[in-house]
Amino acid sequence: MGSGIDGYDERQKALRRKFGYQAFWIMAILGFLNAYICEIIYPWADPLVANFTVFFLSVFYFGFRTIFSGAYTGNKFSERRTAILIPLVCGYNVIVHLSLIIPHLVQGKVHLIEDGKATIFFITVFITIIFIPFTAAYYIRRSREKGDKE
Prior knowledge:
single chain, two-stranded antiparallel sheet
């Protein structure tokens, strides 16, 4: 079996491309909206935090759509890969982000909002928390597929 997208059937490849295009346009629209809000209305976050938030929202959109549509599951090759990959990525994400937050938490320096703006801790906590339903979505989809096969 090949690497990358080669192990998926045509429907899965088409869905991944479709949701990738949608995620790109969501990122573009949110980027312009974010720039407008930060420059004209109210700078709700530092520029780095605001841009990361826009980027991660589009990434999470892509992830949820592909998982719930079955674009990552359904054949033995991708099922085996994602059974290992999803918990590994989610576990790694939680460990890394907690290691970034815990030293500051112990010192009492974790402020999600300072001076009316979201801080880098906001995006760190946001990313860590969002991976919990992301992982749950994968396992719900996988259990539905196993139930359909029986």
